[in-house]
Amino acid sequence: MNPLSRGPFPATRMRRVRRVEWSRRMVAEHRLSTNDLIWPVFVFDGNGRTPIPSMPGVDRLGGDQIESMAEMAVSLGIPAIALFPATPSELKTEDAAEAINPGNLICRSVRKVKEAVGDSLGVICDVALDPYSSTGHDGLIRDNYVVNDETVEVLAKQAIVQAEAGCDIIAPSDMMDGRIGVIRDALDRANFSHVQIMSYAAKYASAFYGPFRDAVGSSGNLGGASKSTYQQAPSQSDEALHEVALDLAEGADSVMVKPGMPYLDIIQRVKTTFGVPTFAYQVSGEYAMLAAASEQGWLDRERVVMESLLGFKRAGADGILTYFAPDAAKWLGQ
Ligand SMILES: NCc1[nH]cc(CCC(=O)O)c1CC(=O)O
Ligand SMILES: [Mg+2]
Fold it and tell me: Could you tell me the Gene Ontology terms of the biological process aspect for this record (predicted)?
């Protein structure tokens, strides 16, 4: 130890590698790429676009917008989109029968995407009854309770009509027990053994879904009711691992943690415990926060979005469902 050459400071200076940009790039541990982005898209029955007030900058797309949306996703290099339907309210019923109508909005939309871009773009479909049920719940209700096994039977049928329409990845977001195994079995029996299942395995009962429920028009139907009898409580961490273990055992190809930013610890635990493809969903409320603050000029949109997405990568996510996907792809491509 030579106090003249070192002065009072330690030999290790963490700032040395941060001094210039090329060096910061050189030591970067985590990177976001366009391949990490999954773009959730809302569709409605009609043409043109309708804005979603609680998601400034996101529109529901009509049938005539689907082809150009799909082509844009492909040209940006986004690997997959996730489609969500704003079902006309007159088609919402207690039994959510529209969910298993092979000609429903989501199936027609999937066909349009596949006709336009084929296998250049993966299509993910949500399996759950909330966009179709007059109650706004993800399952069927008997005696004021969302029933499990009867719901799972309908979900399996829903998955089949989506696979028939050309959906590449079935993504059950309903949180019923045992649905992954039943859906896998149904897909295999119907000759859809190549169709993947991305399970919303650790999905929390979250207030961050509010703008999504506005977008698909289920918030009015739900009337403030909670989904806590099937979605996980935010207090749970070990329980998320149990959920993931079950879904993997039942045949899930990949798993999701949702919401995103408040649950980065869960993403990390899932990834390190299971080592399987793990996705994060930066949900509608997270979008709304960042978009609204940016609109006000309180946050720098590009910088906060890219920082939030990199955070998911650092936590261990293999990909992120984000409404910012087209923006992020453009920023990454620059
Ligand atoms: N089961 C439906 C579903 N699929 C995705 C989301 C939320 C996505 C978002 O907020 O962006 C929800 C809402 C809910 O569970 O109430
Ligand atoms: Mg489960």
Answer: protoporphyrinogen IX biosynthetic process
> Tens digit of pLDDT for each residue in 196-243?
999 999 999 999 999 999 998 888 888 889 999 999 999 999 999 999
Tell me the two tokens of residue 185.
């079995």
Tell me whether residue 114 is one of the annotated catalytic residues: no
The CB-side HSE value for 69 (13 A sphere, CA atoms) comes to 27
ipTM of model: 0.97
Q: Look at ligand 1, atom 3, and give the residue with the nearest C-alpha.
A: 173
| Strands 145-146 and 141-142, bridge-based pairing | antiparallel
Question: Ligand nearest 230 Cα, by number?
Answer: 2
Tokens standing for residue 323: 């409404």
Q: 10 Å Cβ neighbour count for 334?
A: 5
Ramachandran angles phi, psi of 34, nearest 5°? -60, -30
- Domains of the chain with CATH codes: 32-333 (3.20.20.70)
Of all protein residues, the one whose alpha carbon is nearest to atom 13 of ligand 1 is 209
Global pTM reads: 0.96
d(CA 175, ligand 2 centre) in Å: 5
Token pair in block for residue 43: 């569709």
Alpha-carbon span 199 to 248, nearest angstrom: 9
List, chain by chain if needed, residues with CB within 6 Å of any ligand 1 atom.
Answer: 126, 128, 130, 138, 173-174, 209, 212-213, 227, 283-284
Strand 145-146 to strand 319-322: parallel, antiparallel, or no bridges (unpaired)? unpaired
Nearest in space to 229 (alpha carbons), one of 151, 157, 126, 309: 151
Catalytic residue flag (residue 203): yes
Residues 6+ apart with CB under 8 A from 42: 52, 58, 59, 60, 61, 84, 85, 86, 215, 216
Distance 63 CA to ligand 1 centre (A): 22
Q: Whose CA is nearest to atom 14 of ligand 1?
A: 209
Q: How far is the CA of 18 from the centre of ligand 1 (A)?
A: 40
| 16 contact partners, CB below 8 Å, separation of at least 6 | none
Q: Do residues 87 and 217 lie in contact, with contact meaning Cβ atoms separated by under 8 Å?
A: yes
